[in-house]
Amino acid sequence: MSKKIDEQKKNVVIVGGGAATTSAIQSLANKLDHAQYNLILLDARPYYVHNIATLRMTVSDAGQLEDRALMPYDRLQNVTFVQGKLVKIEETTPGKGGVLVLENDERLDYTALVLATGSQWNGPPNLGHSDEKVRANIEIWRERFSQAKNVVIAGGGAAGIELAGEIREAHPNTKVTIVHSETHLLNDVYPEKLRKNLEQKVLAQGITLIDQDCIDVFPDPLFVTDVVTRKGKTIKDADLVVRTLSPRNSTSAC
Ligand SMILES: Cc1cc2nc3c(=O)[nH]c(=O)nc-3n(C[C@H](O)[C@H](O)[C@H](O)COP(=O)(O)OP(=O)(O)OC[C@H]3O[C@@H](n4cnc5c(N)ncnc54)[C@H](O)[C@@H]3O)c2cc1C
């Protein structure tokens, strides 16, 4: 384990240092009796990744957003940060704590556990875990977007729409098409008026929309190819097809 943990004390462990926990953990750190408990944050990454910045950060290097969007956990006070990926929870007796098993086979006792492992995103926000991987993925996506002439975005939810806008802003000569399974962008959680207004704004940006259709086959990003949608529509000479489909819960260890 990278950090020394006081073994005389019980461990309160928070797994996942995402948006849901990073503010709450500091309040907990201020209230917890540190004479009795270690407050431990376990995360697979060495820093909090500000998801909201990830699309702009991966579309272009303008402003070097990674300097601000990747925020090291060691700035947290009265919190012991442990970098590691949780793969298994061994509960001793229900509600009485147990052991967390990490990917590198290390084990971490817990008395109280908060699971906040968030979501597994598709496409550019899916940056990986180690610092090397995250930074390499940022560079890979920047290179892909700077080379691409004709980008197809599979999924017209919030991430797909935002990505389309970021591409149009950073690379105005790049053609962008969003393929979306519904009749309007977003989904029916949102009011129809908003969805229609948004659609007009997206079209005004020169973005092409294909609705009520899907991309089933994702070509290798290194090749220029015609993409055929599920309903048989051909998008000619696409050179980058990006998934922005709904994320899945990161609950494989739970
Ligand atoms: C491109 C994009 C734009 C967004 N824009 C907005 C916006 O404008 N407004 C808004 O409200 N929301 C936005 N969101 C959504 C917002 O980011 C999420 O709702 C929020 O991050 C959820 O917080 P969380 O703590 O539950 O999960 P996350 O922030 O995903 O954090 C989960 C943490 O758990 C860690 N983890 C996962 N599995 C393990 C494991 N097995 N072991 C150890 N650690 C693990 C991860 O490394 C991660 O640090 C956006 C998301 C994206 C991708």
In short:
The chain has 2 domains: 10-120, 3-Layer(bba) Sandwich (FAD/NAD(P)-binding domain), CATH 3.50.50; 148-248, FAD/NAD(P)-binding domain (3-Layer(bba) Sandwich). Helices cover 26% and strands 28% of the residues.
Low-confidence stretches: none
Query: CATH H-level name of the largest domain... which superfamily?
Result: FAD/NAD(P)-binding domain
The level-1 CATH class of the largest domain: Alpha Beta
- Given helix and strand content, the structural type is alpha/beta
User: How many domains in all?
Assistant: 2
Shape: elongated
**CATH architectural arrangement of the largest domain:** 3-Layer(bba) Sandwich
- Spatial sequence of strands, sheet with the most strands: 5-2-1-9
- For the CA atoms, what is the radius of gyration? 21 Å
How many beta-strand segments? 17
Please report the distance between the alpha carbons of the first and last residues: 21 Å
What is the averaged pLDDT score?
94
The portion of residues forming beta strands comes to 25-35%
